[in-house]
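I hope you will forgive my troubling you with a question about protein structure. I am sending you one protein, given as its amino acid sequence and as whole-number tokens for its backbone shapes. Thank you for your consideration; the sequence and its tokens are set out here:
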Amino acid sequence: MKSPKKLKEKLKSHPEVIPESSSIRLHRAISWYKAAKAQETDPDISFITYWIAFNACYGTTEINPLEKKERDRFAHFTNQLSAIDKQDMLYNILWDKFSGPIRILIDNKFAFKPFWEAQKGKEIDWEKAFLNEKQKAFKLLNGRNVSELLQIVIQRLYVVRNQLVHGGATYKSSVNRAQVKDAQRILSYLIPAIIELMIENSDLDWGDISYPVIEE
């Protein structure tokens, strides 16, 4: 797992000219990765900051944001990542951490969106869906299907993200400590790997960055 400093050096020493949009995207992601590392003793703040780094990696400008759901964005991004991950960096993380924070997060109903939809009165058998997705995750891991497994993991992380960012949880609350700490740990492994893959493949089309730099 490369440090923010190592990734910044790798970005600067890249042998080929990196497109401006990719360069800005990666500089932003590394800056937030560095900030998240500095806040690791505070899981709430660190996780939110890691998510900002992740958002810097995958976020794009849409003409109409409603046309593309977040789930579709995640799917497109993970498909891109898995296609370029020739050294199995992401698979190795998923494999190594599946018996730890990833499995625990997948086993946690409070990080499962249908659970919360059921609490709001939506008629849904969330328990069956919860069991099915857990079983699916194991099959995807054994089948080395990185993209779809990563989508499941990111969807769980997204629920935790929403709880914090939208004020749905108390700061440093004991109620949600488990999922926040696990979510923070997972992103601490994934973010540097994602950034490194994107540096090595910066010539690919990662989409137009949100809020491009505008010279006054």
In short: The chain has one domain: 4-200. Residues 4-200 form one domain.
